[in-house]
Design goal:
The protein has one domain: Archaeosine Trna-guanine Transglycosylase, Chain: A, domain 4 (Roll), CATH 2.30.130. The chain has one helix and five strands; from the N terminus they run βαββββ. A five-stranded mixed beta sheet has the order 1-3-4-5-2. Strand 3 and strand 4 form a beta hairpin. The longest helix has 8 residues. The two termini are about 25 Å apart.
């Protein structure tokens, strides 16, 4: 498990904090993996400062470009709810 610390602008940060945004689309430069931890730090681009607010998340599924229409060089990952359990060896 790896911890990734990422900047996030206020609007998407708020949507994640409310539980409305359940995914992230990121440049695929960190080898995101299921069960990695992501720390989103709220960033104000106009003043180039952090607000001090942050959220710690667990990654669920990761799709990397060019699979499933995701552009090359990007990754899309789901955000697990605290109550969700990830079963790495479960097959359906």
């Amino acid at each position: 498990m790896t911890v990734h610390i990422l900047k996030t602008w206020p609007e998407p940060f708020a949507e994640v904090a409310k539980g409305l945004k359940k995914h992230e689309i990121r440049k695929n430069d960190r080898d995101f993996q299921a069960r990695d931890v992501v720390v989103l730090r709220e960033w104000i681009p106009s003043s180039r400062t952090y607000t001090g607010r942050q959220i710690e998340l667990t990654i669920g599924h990761v799709t990397r470009g060019p699979d499933w229409g995701v552009p090359e060089g990007l990754a899309v990952f789901t955000i697990l709810d605290e109550s969700e359990t990830y079963y790495a060896d479960e097959h359906t």
